Structures are given as structure tokens and as C-alpha cells.
């Protein structure tokens, strides 16, 4: 095994990431989960979805979660966003316990979920309107974000006039418009064709580099996970637990050629081995 692709302990970030965390100072930055578990109570009985999880995501890190269907990935994301309370344990964002939905996150789902009657700029401005923030303060930011994702000139178009990939780019702007520290992405490119998906991956890495956001992304695709991530968390079947966390020791910026790097190939194979018996990932 290439020593560079050995799994690391959850609490040991890559060296370059540790530097970022150290510089931040003050309250513990990033996202920290301590003993976070979830059991859904339903009429048919309890559904244990996540075993107690302990891990940290560093400020500015690109952190990707892969795992079999139903292992609790979306549940994890909802608990970090504050949309869902954990059954046990605590989620901390910048040292503060999350007890309700908070403004530190922007969320991107599998489908763009744009409002069909609002034009692209108005859709990007939706969080500002919902939070009743000053529109004029954020309008320039929304336009700049649309430009950043290549949608300049499409501000007045309605969602149906854009391709699926363009709509998803608009939804990324919507997630970033209120300048959250963290972007939570649940299978954001699952509905796109393979070529658009690859382009969106490159685009997302560029946006993350330019905005410095912390990204937590969920995917079923192991190559996508390795291509994007600083670290990949591999989950077990439900109730989900941490099977391993891998550092991805490949330099940035990355391009599609990165996928022919032997480190990339070896890491994809190593992670795939976790799922040999399940066959439930790409
Ligand atoms: N509101 C709920 N009530 C009861 N069980 C639920 C509820 N929401 C989710 N579950 C169950 O919890 C488990 C984890 O669900 P979750 O959606 O987090 O998984 P996932 O890993 O995101 O799945 P997928 O990859 O298929 O999207 C599943 O078995 C699901 O059926």
C-alpha cells in the first residue's frame, strides 16, 4: 500500500489543514461532532440510523462522506445544519453547540429546487428575502456569485430556460449568497449526466478555493469523493458508523488529469474495498 493513502484517525487532519486551523485561533473553529447519534422514532418502532460519531471538520476543508444507501448520510447533514436534533451527543460549529437551524450554513440538494416563477437572480436572493435581510446589501454579491459560476447574462432568465447543470450552479449561488462559513451538499450532482457532473466538480473546487468555504459533501461516487476531497469519510451500513477516514494527498489545483494519478487510482480502489460485499456504490 502507498503509505500516502493509509487511513488516518479522525482527529488527525492533514498537515496543511492543521496550519489553517491553527491560524484561526479563538473558539474551536470548524465543525466538531461528539458522540452524535440518531434513532428515528416511528409508529413501526425505532429506526437506529447513526451510531455515535466523533470527528472534526477543519475550517476551509473539503470533506466528503461516502456510504451505502440508507446509512444515515443525509441525517448527518441535517443534524449539522440544525434541522434535526441528534438523539445523543453534540454538534459544535465554531465552538457553539447547534440547537436549531443557523445562518452558518448554505445547503445544496440533489435537485436545484429553484422556484419556477422567480428568475435566476431572484432565486439566488431567496435566503436574503426569507431572512428579511437588506436586499440592496446583497444584490451585488448575488450578481458576483452568478458571475463566478458562469451565469452572467442569465440573471433575468427563468429556471426552465437553463440546463440542469446551470440550474444547479444557480442553487450553489443561493447557498452562498448570505456568506455562510459552511456549504453542506447532499448528492448535489447526482441528477446530472456524467460529463456535466465532471465539469461541475472542477467548477465546485474552483468556487471553494476562491471563497475559502468549508464544504461537507455527500456522494455515492467514490471517484468523485477522492477527486474533490481533502479527506474522505467512509461510512458503514445502517446504523452508520465511521469505517475509515482517508487523507487525499494530491496537490491542488486538481484537474480531470488528476484521475489518472496513481495515488487517485489506489485510493479509489482502497475505498471501494469497503463496499465489495454491498455493491451499492459507483
Ligand atoms: N423521518 C424518518 N423516520 C424514520 N426513519 C427515517 C426517517 N428519515 C430517515 N429514516 C431512516 O434512517 C436511515 C438513514 O436515512 P438517510 O436518509 O439519512 O440515509 P442516506 O445515507 O442519506 O440514504 P441515501 O444514500 O439513500 O440517500 C434510513 O434507513 C431511513 O429509512
Task: Provide a descriptive summary of the structure in words.
There is one protein chain. Helix 8 (222-228) packs across helix 9 (262-273). 33% of the residues lie in helices and 23% in strands. It has helices spanning 15-24, 73-81, 120-124, 126-130, 135-148, 164-176, 194-211, 222-228, 262-273, and strands at residues 7-8, 31-42, 45-57, 62-66, 88-93, 96-97, 105-108, 182-186, 214-219, 231-235, 242-247. It folds into 2 domains: 3-104 and 180-273, Rossmann fold, CATH 3.40.50; 115-178, no CATH class. The two termini are 22 Å apart. The protein has 282 residues and is of the alpha/beta class. The longest helix has 18 residues, at 194-211. The model is unreliable at 9-26 (pLDDT under 50). It binds adenosine-5'-triphosphate. Residues 40, 42, 47, 49, 67, 69-75, 238 line the site of adenosine-5'-triphosphate. Residues 40, 42, 47, 49, 67, 69-75, 238 line the site of adenosine-5'-triphosphate (ATP).
Amino acid at each position: 500500500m502507498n503509505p500516502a493513502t493509509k487511513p488516518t484517525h479522525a482527529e488527525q487532519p492533514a498537515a496543511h489543514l492543521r496550519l489553517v486551523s491553527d491560524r484561526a485561533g479563538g473558539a474551536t473553529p470548524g465543525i466538531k461532532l461528539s458522540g452524535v447519534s440518531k434513532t428515528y422514532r416511528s409508529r413501526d418502532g425505532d429506526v437506529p440510523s447513526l451510531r455515535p460519531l466523533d470527528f472534526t471538520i477543519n475550517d476551509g476543508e473539503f470533506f466528503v462522506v461516502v456510504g451505502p444507501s440508507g446509512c444515515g448520510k443525509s441525517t448527518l447533514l441535517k443534524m449539522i445544519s440544525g434541522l434535526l436534533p441528534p438523539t445523543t451527543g453534540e454538534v459544535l460549529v465554531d465552538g457553539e453547540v447547534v440547537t436549531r437551524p443557523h445562518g452558518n450554513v448554505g445547503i445544496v440538494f440533489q435537485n436545484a429546487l429553484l422556484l419556477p416563477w422567480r428568475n435566476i437572480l431572484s432565486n439566488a436572493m431567496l435566503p436574503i428575502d426569507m431572512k428579511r435581510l437588506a436586499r440592496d446589501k446583497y444584490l451585488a454579491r448575488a450578481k458576483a456569485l452568478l458571475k463566478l459560476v458562469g451565469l452572467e447574462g442569465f440573471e433575468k432568465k427563468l429556471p426552465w430556460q437553463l440546463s440542469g447543470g446551470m440550474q444547479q450552479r444557480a442553487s450553489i449561488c443561493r447557498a452562498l449568497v448570505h456568506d455562510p462559513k459552511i456549504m453542506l451538499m447532499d448528492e448535489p450532482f447526482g441528477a446530472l449526466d456524467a460529463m456535466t457532473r465532471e465539469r461541475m466538480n472542477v467548477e465546485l473546487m474552483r468556487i471553494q478555493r476562491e471563497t475559502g468555504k468549508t464544504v461537507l459533501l455527500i456522494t455515492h461516487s467514490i471517484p468523485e469523493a477522492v477527486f474533490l476531497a481533502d479527506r474522505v469519510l467512509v461510512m458503514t451500513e445502517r446504523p452508520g458508523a465511521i469505517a475509515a477516514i482517508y487523507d487525499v494527498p494530491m496537490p491542488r489545483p486538481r484537474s480531470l488529469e488528476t484521475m489518472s494519478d496513481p495515488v487517485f487510482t489506489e485510493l479509489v480502489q482502497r475505498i471501494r474495498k469497503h463496499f465489495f460485499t454491498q455493491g451499492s456504490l459507483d
